[in-house]
Amino acid sequence: MALEGLKQRIIGSMSLLKGKRVVDEETIKELSKQLRRALLEADFNVRQTKELTERIERRMMEEDPLPGVKLETHAMNMMYTELVRILGPPRDIRPRNETVLMVGLYGQGKTTTTAKIADWWRRKHGVKVAVIEADVHRPGAFQQLTQLLEGTNVEVYGEPDENDAKTIVRNGLKKFSSADVVIIDTAGRDSLDGDLKQELIDIANIANATERFLVIDAQVGQAAGPVAQTFHDLVGVTGTIITKLDGTARGGGALSAVATTGAPIVFVGEGERINDLEKFESDRFISRLLGMGDIKGLIDLAPEDMDEQEAMRLTQRLMSGRFTLTDMYAQMEMTSKIGTMDKLLSHLPDSMFGGMNNMSRGQKQQMQNNLDQYRVIMDSMTQEEKDEPVLLKSSRIRRIARGSGVEEKAVKDLLGHWNKSKKMMRGMKGNRKFRRQMQSMMDLDDNIGM
Ligand SMILES: Nc1nc2c(ncn2[C@@H]2O[C@H](COP(=O)(O)OP(=O)(O)OP(=O)(O)O)[C@@H](O)[C@H]2O)c(=O)[nH]1
Ligand SMILES: [Mg+2]
How far is residue 368's CA from residue 335's CA, in Å, rounded to a whole number? Predict the structure, then answer.
């Protein structure tokens, strides 16, 4: 999860309220101070940080928590709404009849993101997407884009030997006149000087793009605001993409500063691979940032051969308290299809699985390995055994171990794991607070815990 440090510090600040029934002014001031420090350290915009903490101070003085709601939760909910407010409402783009121009400084991730978005729209919306490589300055740009999109159904247009970007854009648009979406990757700029400025304006005019996306590296920090403003003046930025949120603790600058130009964040990049892209919705993002989880995002992560309903069904079944080995298997399969535990866990609330989110990288790897082995073992079980694991007495265990080529102990470990998971699921079912949280996550429009 991006901004892990910020999350820990916010949660840490909230612990000032632990065990308190009523708040006193001194505590509120201290809370506000700590929150301000946490946000500034993550490079959130200074003015917005000040506004946000002042609002929290005021609201903490004026608003009483609902009956039964702990002060800590009360404050956390405020933090959630205030952060969502800063980032603004989400913007949904329907990828039809769109021409998208990608702009940004050097090395921010324009080419990578061009490929990611093209593939995203093709996969998630089933539309015909094509890309044009109009960067005539970076050697190998066309090859880079082609490689990124290898194995996808996205067509790439480029003329590696042409040094006039305008010509390439004109020819490319002609070629792709029947595509639902065309994305144009442009050359990076060091700073916006004369020639390059003109080139970008020319391309923008020829493309007559319906969207102009500014790609901005999360590490840019506080400078993100001025950068965004410069490009905005030039081409009229309609959407912002923050890249490399995986690699920095200071992404707050890009997150908060770009909102000041009024061009909402539409996607965030969280890695170098083509599917390391996330659609950005401020409520979901903040929910995860604060450790409240993001079930809808989890569904986004689910692979294409698992539809939303299936993912939702599984989640609900896990909540229902009945939990067979088959359920655990489905859960594990989903996990392994999604790829790393890391990604999955970052979408679950911290309270789930007793803070598994805070496991170390090594622990997570160990868990992934266990899951892989469990899967092999379960392939040697009958359906009946998976549905009724209590049937698994020693002779069956021996058979299964032989069938899957493992020690009997491994089979017993699996059963032990199932037992524990089952208890955990039961525990969650009985936990009213958790159920509420889960329910509100499934219907985020109602606002978390509000
Ligand atoms: N970790 C991480 N790396 C990224 C992300 N997006 C891009 N990169 C890497 O950042 C580097 C630059 O990415 P490019 O897509 O070439 O950037 P660009 O803006 O097209 O660069 P120029 O064309 O040279 O201006 C590459 O090594 C990418 O793999 C991201 O979200 N996370
Ligand atoms: Mg590039």
Answer: 9
- Write out the residues surrounding ion ligand 2, Cβ under 5 A: 110-111
What values do phi and psi take at 240, rounded to 5? -120, 140
pTM assigned to the model: 0.70
Chain segment 113-154, per-residue pLDDT in tens: 999 999 999 998 999 999 999 999 999 999 999 999 999 999
Q: Look up tokens 């247009």; give the residue.
A: 157
Torsion of CA 12, 17, 18, 23, to 10 degrees: 180
Q: Which segments of 178-325 are extended strands (E)?
A: 181-185, 211-217, 239-243, 265-269, 277-279
User: Rounded CA gap, 205 and 212, in Å?
Assistant: 12
Whether 93 is covered by a domain: the verdict is: no
Q: What kind and span of H or E run contains 156? A: strand 155-157
Rounded to the nearest whole angstrom, what is the distance from the C-alpha of residue 97 to the centroid of ligand 2? 24
pLDDT of residue 443: 44
CB of 247 sitting under 6 A from ligand 1 = yes
DSSP character at residue 66: P
Same domain, 315 and 273: no
DSSP conformation class of 105: B
At residue 312 the predicted structure's pLDDT band, cuts being 50, 70 and 90, is low
The reply to whether ligand 1 has any atom less than 6 angstroms from the CB of 107 is yes
Q: Is 106 in the pocket of ligand 1 (CB under 6 A)?
A: yes
Q: What CATH number is attached to the domain comprising 201?
A: 3.40.50.300
Q: How far is the CA of 245 from the centre of ligand 2 (A)?
A: 18
Helix, strand, coil percentages in the chain from 3-state DSSP, rounded to 5 = 60, 10, 30
Which residue in 140, 135, 193 sits closest to 165, CA to CA? 135
CA of 214 to the centre of ligand 1 (A): 13
What does residue 133 show for φ and ψ, rounded to 5 degrees? -90, 105
Q: Are residues 235 and 384 in the same domain?
A: no
Q: Is the CB of 186 under 6 A from ligand 1?
A: no
Q: Whose CA is nearest to atom 6 of ligand 1?
A: 109
Give the chain's mean pLDDT: 83
Strand-strand pairing, 211-217 and 129-133: unpaired
Q: What is the CA radius of gyration of the chain?
A: 25
Structure confidence by residue, pLDDT tens digits, 61-115 = 999 888 777 888 889 888 988 988 888 877 888 899 999 999 999 999 999 999 9
CATH at 351 = 1.10.260.30
How does pLDDT run across 217-271, given as a tens digit for each residue? 988 888 888 888 889 989 999 999 999 988 776 788 888 777 767 888 999 998 9
Pairing of strands 265-269, 277-279: antiparallel
Number of structural domains (the chain) is 3
